[in-house]
Specification:
By secondary structure, the chain is of the alpha/beta class. Helices cover 41% and strands 19% of the residues. It has a seven-stranded mixed beta sheet with strand order 13-14-18-19-17-16-15. Helix 5 runs antiparallel to helix 11 and helix 13 crosses helix 16. The longest helix is centred in the middle third of the chain and has 36 residues. The two termini are 22 Å apart.
Length: 574
């Protein structure tokens, strides 16, 4: 692994440290985050306030969407909400349906079934929604931007269509419905919302609805607090890997705190089954690795409507049973994923070891799980990977990328054989006819090479700052805590420390991991852990450099500072 570190001008670091009243280490981290050197930008970043959320009506078409929602509520119209089956879609659906119910509406909701309906606003999902009667208003969440034929089908039956989505599109804007999507409305007015995922856009819609009704002294609106819904917003925002900058940072920071004390029985039951303790500080990693996989599992293997019902339910018994069911689905998903991952890794190592971008297909691979496999193999082999499963005449699945390679741009140059595709720079969905697999595989590899050159052969580890052992203290960790939440656009800092000499051999546990400790120049002992690195243990008595993240280790009601090793290398001679 290649370590990289770009020193910053000492004068700039010192100036920001003095101006913001923070340590030089935190000042360096803020400067690396970008755009925080001027004025009070650093202070706003460290203390993101809900009051800084902009007027929701600045978002293109939001005023029209609020007007149409008010008409539906006042007229007791039939409303159908269709949300995608991932966490963003599920949390968006729960947020909008929950708010509409508070105003006396009785919206029906539907989530596409992956195996029957495919992705998004498909005809089969629409027809299933219409089985219970034709609505007056059909709202699609986290999908629908490119669904021209489907929107026209609904409009042809006299149904109004509203689409709230954040997926990118190179096709003409939807003309058969009302569309809120900052990636389609590319004017400067929508710059601030470009990175919001769908649940963030739905929150803006809800904020606008409440703001307008409060101005008219509507009693329901006056009794609702938008901040009480930020637990759902944080859930979808963190899970969808959107940049945690601007309003996303505000929503995620406050939403994680609301989630920590959430009063939703469904979320509480899910957190209990996932091992997230009540009152414990919740980090993005808890969403990414504990809550999201269980919410996603129902959509991957069964029906994601179950996850929406869980988030909306007030019945503790139903919530406890449903959380257990999602946990069971997740365990099944893990078993399937493990088998596919092992097979995918064997194929890469035997057939595509030197390929810059990999397309894999398995005739017995479950399309609902291949996205997770794509994420695993792209990280392990440090290259973009598309992993496809069998779905009738189609090969269908997902792609995942690595830092610096935009999959949307890559696929835009090699999409001639794709029947459908779309997504984000780091994650895309793809389908194509099986006879075109070999040709697409060649084109994808060529497109990645053209996009990235030869700069992806070796994984890169970017260091945020070099520290001395004496600087690794709880006071520094308290400053780093102010940078939370970490995620896309605000990565968790990796620090380096030079010339560490281990006096005692690291302690291997569970045959996979090891613990280690060393002393600073004052004899203070520092402790660390290395996950899945037991086959690569640093030597004793020899100076080594360590690359690590700093974490709090919660143990026996105590909070201890801990280094989490990312990599190590032998120190260069002085």
């Amino acid at each position: 692994m290649r370590w990289t570190y770009t020193p910053l001008p000492a004068a700039e670091v010192g100036a920001l440290s003095q101006r913001a009243g923070v340590s030089p280490v935190l000042a360096e981290l803020l400067l690396r985050t970008g755009g925080l050197a001027e004025g009070d930008a650093a202070a706003r970043f460290l203390n993101p306030a809900l009051a800084e959320l902009a007027d929701p009506f600045l978002l293109t078409n939001l005023d029209k969407a609020v007007t149409r929602l008010r008409q539906a509520i006042t007229g007791r119209e039939e409303i159908v909400v269709l949300g995608d089956y991932d966490v963003d879609g599920v949390s968006s659906t729960a947020l909008l349906v929950g708010i509409l119910r508070r105003f006396g509406a009785k919206p029906r909701f539907i989530v596409p079934r992956r195996s029957e309906d495919g992705y998004g606003l498909s005809r089969s999902a629409i027809d299933r929604a219409l089985e219970q009667g034709k609505p007056d208003l059909f709202i699609a969440l986290d999908c629908g931007t490119n669904s021209h034929a489907e929107a026209a089908y609904l409009r042809g039956q006299g149904v109004d269509v509203m689409v709230i989505d954040h997926h990118r599109s190179k096709e003409p804007s939807l003309d058969q419905g009302l569309l809120i999507n900052p990636h389609v409305h590319m004017g400067p007015d929508d710059d601030a919302w470009r990175n919001l995922c769908t649940v963030g856009l739905v929150f803006k819609l809800v904020h606008g609805l409440l703001k307008q009704l409060r101005a008219e002294n509507d009693p329901v609106a006056l009794g609702l607090k938008p901040r009480d819904y930020l637990d759902l917003v944080a859930l979808g925002t963190v899970a969808d890997l959107v940049p945690l900058r601007g309003e996303n940072r505000i929503l995620a920071r406050h939403g994680l705190r609301i989630l920590q004390e959430t009063q939703r029985p469904g979320l509480r039951a899910l957190m209990d089954i996932a091992g997230v303790k009540a009152g414990q500080e919740i980090m993005p990693v808890d969403i990414s690795y504990r809550l999201s996989p269980r919410i996603n599992a129902s959509g991957r293997l069964a029906d994601a409507a179950l996850s929406v019902e869980l988030l909306l339910s007030e019945d503790p018994d139903f919530c406890a049973e449903t959380a257990r069911q999602l946990d069971t689905f997740n365990r099944e998903r893990q078993d399937i994923e493990r088998l596919i991952t092992d097979e995918a890794e064997r194929i890469i190592e035997t057939q595509f070891a030197d390929c810059p971008g990999v397309v894999l297909y398995g005739d017995n691979w479950h399309p609902g799980v291949v996205g997770i496999v794509a994420g695993r193999v792209s990280r392990k082999y440090n290259r973009p990977c598309v992993v496809l499963g069998n779905e009738g005449e189609l090969a269908k699945g997902s792609g995942r990328s690595i830092d610096g390679i935009n999959l949307v741009e890559v696929l835009g140059t090699c999409c001639e054989h794709l029947t459908s595709w779309g997504g984000h720079p780091m994650a895309v969905g793809v389908s194509l006819a099986k006879p075109h697999l070999d040709r697409f595989r060649e084109q994808f590899a060529g497109a990645v090479r053209a996009h990235a050159g030869d700069d992806i052969a070796e994984a890169r580890l970017d260091l945020a700052a070099w520290l001395t052992p004496e600087q690794i203290r709880e006071s520094l960790m308290n400053e780093i805590d102010a940078l939370h939440p970490f995620g896309q656009g605000n990565p968790e800092p990796v620090f380096g420390v030079r010339g560490i000499v281990f006096r005692h051999p690291p302690d291997v546990f569970k045959s996979l991991h090891f613990r280690f400790n060393f002393e600073d120049n004052r004899g203070r002992r520092l402790y660390g852990v290395a996950w899945k690195m037991a086959k690569r243990i640093p030597p004793c008595g020899v100076p080594v450099d360590l690359a690590f993240e700093l974490k709090w280790n919660h143990f026996n009601d105590r909070k201890l500072l801990q280094l989490v090793l990312s990599d190590w290398r032998l120190s260069e001679p002085a």
